[in-house]
Amino acid sequence: MDIWQYFLQRQREIEACSLTIPEHVDLFAAEAGDERRGKLFGCVEFACYPPSVYMQVHEEIVIEGTGISRPRYACFLVIDGREIGGFERHLTHDPAVHKHCSGHKNHEASPWHVVSFKQAAETAWEYVSAFATPLVAKQARS
Amino acid sequence: MNRRHYSAESLSHALIELEHEYQMTSARFYERYRAGERLDIPHFTQHAWASLYEDVQRMTGGRGAERGSVMARVGHAITVA
Known about the structure:
The structure holds 2 protein chains of 2 kinds. By secondary structure, chain A is α+β, with helices and mostly antiparallel strands. Chain A has helices at about 5-15, 115-130, 135-140, and strands at about 20, 30, 35-45, 55-65, 65-70, 75-80, 80-90, 95-100, 110. Chain A is about 25% helix and about 40% strand. The longest helix of chain A has 15 residues, at about 115-130. The radius of gyration of chain A is 16 Å and the shape is globular. Chain B has helices at about 10-20, 25-35, 45-60, 65-75; one strand spanning about 5. Mean pLDDT of chain B is about 85; it is low at about 75-80.
């Protein structure tokens, strides 16, 4: 699989999670001169919610033979300008794989396991459903 | 899907924007990030900044991208805290 085929898979995965890529965002990019590497970088929005509810995404993608790895990733939920929390993998951290926001205090980081994008999106949806106001409710109020 | 690419120069453009916004060089930020200092910068931004900085270092063999051309396009100078 080349990186563009992989990106197409990921695009379908995002849509299957009821998330949308804003028109102005180029979420997928390959490394110039080495298309075994690439990135997802940008934000995705939640279907039926305003643009102020979004998930910031960065994933480093490395294709080696038939294997695909994500050496670094971060998925963070933002609601109305506030970073709610997210999942992260970065080797400079100890532990490298962790999550932010336990719900107990701000800026808290806790060890966690590697999460897929789909798992991060499912968790984000739980928070969005609980704390964000969908478009229909916003329109009804105005 | 548009076939977009990034390069050391395009990532450096993003680094300069971050340096401008947070009034800190990327090298200084990265040092503080690695040391685990608490920074008043959103977590995602910290992750992205550190990752892009690492990418530029890797892609340029530690030299960093040519700042002159990037700066000319960005159109502003950075101030180091």
